[in-house]
Records
---
Amino acid sequence: MIKIVKRDQPSKAIFFFTPVLAIFLTLIAGGIIFYILGFKPFEALKFFFIVPIADKYGFSELLLKATPLCLIAIGLSFCFKSNNWNIGAEGQLTFGAIVSGGVALLFYDQEGFYILPIVILAGAIGGMIYASIPAILKTYFNTNEILVSLMLVYVSKLILDYLVVGPWSNPEGFNFPETRQFSDSARLPLLFEGLRIHAGIFLALAAVVISWFVFYKTYLGFQMKVSGFSLKTAKYAGYKGKKMIILVFLISGACAGLAGVGEITGPIGQLHREVSPDYGFTAIIVAFLGRLHPVGIILASLVVAITYLGAETAQIFMQIPKYTGQVFQGMILFFLLASDYLLFFKFKFIGSKK
Amino acid sequence: MIVDINFVGLIIASIMASAVPLILASCGELITERSGVLNLGVEGMMIIGAISGFALMTVTGSLIIAVLGAMLAGVLISTIFAFLTQTLITNHVATGLALTIFGIGISAMIGKNFVGIPGKEFPVLFEGLKDTIPLLSPILFGHSIVFYFAFALPFITSYFLKKTKIGLIVRAVGDSPESASNQGINVRFVRYACILYGGAMCGLAGAYLSMIYTPQWIENMTGGRGWIALALVVFSTWNPIKILIGAMIFGGLTIIQFHMQAIGVRIPVQFLTALPYIVTIIVLVVISRDSRKIRLSTPSSLGKSFHKDN
């Protein structure tokens, strides 16, 4: 007989084990879905998870997709740790891209070492401005940040659409919905000849290091954790709750904005309609899968980035619909949340009494 | 300028039609939230309902099977949410987000074979009475049964919560799960039921979109309506009758957008499309500013897990 028993305290080992379990369960469930759809499960999974990253180009693409996911998820971990539900990173990314793209367009016919730093900074500021809206409304008007940050995603995409179709569209571009090409000085340099991976990856790595330092080595990180654990305790300890909320939103907005910079100043080099294939939403899953831990987030961003690549490969080689990627992402989060049950409860095998 | 009074009636009717999916989804979510559960998966459940309804209609040819099937699909997908949040005690917000991401992906996957297929005509009621009363006729007559159901639903929901015993139990579970549990109420069962009911209503809302409002399947066709429905619940301060008002305002914004374009108002179309989202934010700010009022009307245990220690 199996009995479910509550653990005295959450298990630390299981805390880091369940993400692995969740990925494993997702693969099994994915195989079953492929089978139902009429594909050979193992072959489909191979095309989904192994083929895309089997060569140098594939690996570069993996890093290219993991970079924004990691960057955004690091930012979100500040919010989630302190119990702020910023789910509008997609909007902050888009607005960051708009602001940095706008600045890059100002310099479109100029060269100079100073241009790129200004463009990057503009992206971070754009993301921060956009993230400050739900933060200020939450702190001063008691407004639900989940709904506000989400509504702003739609608004940001419409602003971008308006700009690239209208005032910012390339005057020599035959009415395509895109801007001029940025000058080379406004582009993040590519790291290797023939590959698309660009210097944006260093922004992500810097964010990882800084966040690790803040979380584990500063008083601020401690305050964040306490506020996330219990708002009452934080209040009792005299922490400035409102400032904290605004700060974590600004940090996560800046990270999302930087991810937006990477998307437009990297391989593409112009603003167009779709700056992000929902990186901002997927990064929420990355943040959870990585357990809001900087190193965990790096690993999680690589795993989740595969679902983007796998969806493309599987579509080309096996005509598997590309949305399977999203299905996998949803399932990973489901399984992760479900396996958290093991954190608090354990199964006990009891010999049947006679 | 002479305004044709029947034209005014037609505009009001079109506003009401665009309010229908919001009313259905919001009223469903309202019951879920009144039991203390915050399900952010509305958008995901709606899109699942939309594709299920459309697919079943195309495959079986039966509108009844399609509508009921869409509701069932909403129930099934919300069962995942119910199992995770109630049995495995997961975080409501994260689970709801997962449900939305999963729902959008699955619906696009199923919907791949249904893109570009024309929909069927959905029968309307009282069509013969369409020209009888000026102004009122287009508002009252010639709509689908789902339309009439949607406008009755807020009143039914209100009656259910205020006057019936089961409604009282739902409220008790949402406001104080501990005392409800001590009274011998099975909190987990009630919450399961409320989540599944919310799923059914979101499924119906989705089916209305893909079968009646714009009879075709388009990827991501819910376009954020699920999130607006969630905002409407806050707007209503958990009062079903106010959902009706809110949904009419948002329906109005959607319709105005078309008419402004039609009469050639020179505002960028993207701005008009963004209007409902911006207005949602403004409305949320106005409603939430009074934190005391919000606290009094929010179900006390909303979003908090309840676990009876074993």
---
Amino acid sequence: MTLHVDIPEETFSSILAKAFRNTAFVAGFVITLLILAMAIVSYAWTPYDVTKLVISDKTQAPSLAHWFGTDHFGRDILSMVMVGARNSIAVALVAVGIGMGVGVPLGTFAAARGGLVDEMLMRLNDLVFAFPALLSAIMITAIFGPGAVNAIIAIGIFNIPVFARVARAGALAIWPREFILAARAAGKNSTQISIEHVLPNIATLLLVQGTIQFALGILAEAGLSYLGLGAQPPMPSWGRMLFDAQTRMVVAPWMAIFPGMAIVVAVLGLNLLGDGIADILDPKSRRQR
Amino acid sequence: MSLLDIQNLSLAIGDTQILRDVELSVAPGEVMGLVGESGSGKSMTALTVMRLLPYAARATGRVAFDGIDILAATEDQMCALRGDDIGMVFQEPMTALNPVKTIGEQVAEGIRWHTKASRAEAEDRARKMLDRVGLPEAKFPMSRYPHELSGGQRQRVVIAIACALKPKLLIADEPTTALDVVLQAQILDLLRDLVAESRMGLLLISHDLAVVTEMADRITILRRGEVMEAGDTARTLSEQFHPYTRQLAQASMHVPARARPHGVETGHPLLRVEGVTRDYPGRRMSLFRRAPGIRAVDDVSLSMAPGQSVALVGRSGCGKSTLARMILALDRPTSGTIRFRGETITGKSEAELKPARRDMQVVFQDPYGSFDPRQKVEKLVAEPLHVLERKPTRAGRREMVAHALHEVGLDQRDMDKYPHEFSGGQRQRLSIARAIITRPKLVVADEPVSALDVSIRAQILDLFAELNQKLGIAYLFITHDLTVARAITDEVLVMHDGKIVERGKTSEVLDHPQSEAAKALVTAAPDLHRAIARRMQEQG
Amino acid sequence: MTAYLLKRLAIAIATLVLASMVVFAVLEILPGDPARLMLGMNASADQVELLRNQMGLNAPLAWRYLHWAGGLLSLDLGRSYTYSVPVIDLVRERLAVSLPLALIALALSTIIAIPVGLFSASRRGRVGDTISMGAAQLGVAVPNFWFALMLIYVFAVWLRLVPAGGFPGWSAGIWPALKSLLLPAVALALPQAAILARVTRSALIEVLNEDYIRTARAKGLPYRAVLWRHALRNAMIPVLTILGLQFAFLLAGTIIIENVFYLPGLGRLVFQAITQRDLIVVESVVMLLVAAVIAVNLLVDLSYAIVDPRLRSRQ
């Protein structure tokens, strides 16, 4: 499959102006900022101490004192959701970093070299894609033991081929362009061309993919910690909270509702942000509106 | 009575005014030529008649076709007209056909839709139509897919679709612009015959005054959405009453003033190509079998003297661009050697090529695609400085860029802009600035003016001629357009099927071609002088 | 055509062989001695050594790999350490739950997504498009296991329409069995349907901007006919790609969903086997899932060739 990359020809300020007229971008940006702020604030302050168990307050419904209610140990769910955001963001962000850091150079290199190198890297990609990501993540965390760091590695590894593919497809669409030929005629080698001309032109593509993988990372982390393979107690995590809520659905449904909503809002925000960026920077999507 | 009658047509897309009070009419059996440069609104006029305008477009005025008010017609009425009474042919044959349907299906589809004919009947008519446009059953069964056909053949299929139901009006929007001159002549002949056969009205849209003059009974000249002049083709173009008409006509025939430059040089040739061949391996058909390879360039030898301007002409796919790439050391010959300034450049590593690259630069066809949109002009124009032995300082670099910009007629303040802030013609100037910044001895220009409007083209040709005089740069012009070759080259090489079949002084080869390939090119090339003369003669 | 198919087939087989090596290698480095696990902590070193020999754990690595791979090919998967039954029986029994679940989910997702995508693309920018794409945007963001919890809360706890979990087995009759798969399938399918609908819509919109769509319109076909006859088939390639990816995702998704609903499927089996270090089960199930993914990808490649004639004549 070929990928068509339309390179927008606009200045930064005009893009910015357009960005703030794009509903999806603004909504995504605000939501993402809120979630980030929530995670940062949690380092300094939370309504209650999430490590302190107050059994007398257990499974209380949402109230003015506990906006999101309390769990089976009497901990404040709002505070736990705030601290859990930290964990989700950290895991997903570092996993995206791993995927980009390794995948993008691999993909651009494969596109620049072509031939056997390209073929081998792509077959390696196929191999990784043949393993259902979640299954392998479970295996990896099972081998090295559960925990946030191993969750990062497990999710990060599966981000690598995704970024490699996107970078390669984007680069392959840039390479036949005449300005690349002009650069070659000017004596630049393929590494210089990749850095100076290819990467800047596929940056937006990677940015969009980055937000998507960030969102998927949050979902994957939640899944792993739901299975008990993510961050370990007493560190609260959204997935773990859902696991604890499952058997108490009848008595304390809020234990399931609020952490789940937190995941939905975070992922929604990132996806909207990604959609917004793609929309602003891709002139094709605006045609015939 | 007119078949198509457009009065006071104005069109706006969003806040942009595209057309202003356009008047135009086409009678049955008449060919109306609609001429204009890019952005003149000629395609939008056609799409208005078809009512296939973009979503946000608003048209006012009156468009009557065969007594029907097009602008007021319902979508159902338009569907009944399109493809039945009005057919349309588009510019890009490579993308105009659905890649997953056979050509038979695509021609028969419209027939079945409009006539409610049975599948067999429709296929029968489609078959006849394909025969008629020059795609006979034996070589082109209906089960062919578009990707199995060449550009010219695909355009024939598009014409078959448009003419399948013998429409009263055919609209052809730049039908030959994407094709080479020989194919262009064939397609134009076909259109002319189809019009004569069934007294179709033809609205022929083109940027090429010569093409329109050869084809049209009357012409309408459009500029920035307004009609400049309209009337009988021969009279309009011979009298050139309106200044814009004159400007267009002169630009189409423009020949830059060149003092007879460097004649037959003595001494060492600048470039020597000896027995160069380039093979591309065939596609792998199975594990052990490969399709026969393609020999893109076949045992080509040529030499160029310093300061000489040479044209390499040929039809599309003749191997001229492949040869150019090998000369630029962007591709490696399968066999043969290329010597530049006496040194062999074939088989050298990129590092060893640096000194040669300093003295040879390139200008590409597409003024939009040849600049990285993410970099500023300063960096783009300075890119070839990369090969200099001593890299200039930043201030030195800016000075060199400023000088190069000045030489191509741009302002030095332009260096802090991005390429999209320039028009097509200005970008081609930037391209040239980039090519001359290292003071090369040879510039290879691959169709450098064929994407430009005629008036801009004339200016760029002048610039090429001027730089040739001033800096003594040798040019290798790759083109399918003989007027360009005639305008600024001393010698011409005619290429056909990978071989050079004819060479000699430009005027001699173009006036008295010897080889079949050269003759075909010369006869097919539209020529405004000749076309006007013929028109005048016909009318007595 | 045959060249294309052969190349795809060769790649699939090579990937499968490489994948089997990876699985084998990974499980080799997994900590924990299966013989020790089977015999318990009280067994003597001699007993463990004896069992290791019986199980062939002391043979050279390459030999053990070939033995294992040969066993896979002949469907002799060995015996589970913890269940003490042939792995093949275990797999067969669990597959009877997981395969119907994945297939129902895939069918459900496709049936919902394609019409929604078509509808949205054909009324681009209008209210219907905005609403359905807003819903899809939300659907993509919902984790399937949380969605499953909410479904349980509404349909099992509140309305008591379906069981909250467990599986009665196919022997209890088709309807009770299907009923207990219904919620899990919906939980798996809806988030996937949201993704697929978005892909369908954007693929269609991309195709609708192509030149040949204008040619078809110029023939006099109404918009709707152009959408069905010309756009849909060309938009199938990205849709098929996503369908293939979703199958892999659904297979893995069953691991979590089966845990939510206490379904005795493959996902639960492999999850338990990993935590119990039942390597032979893990190896077999992982290989089965990988083979399924590779087979589906091969199918997707083949369907590309059916959809797109250009691939048939290319290598």
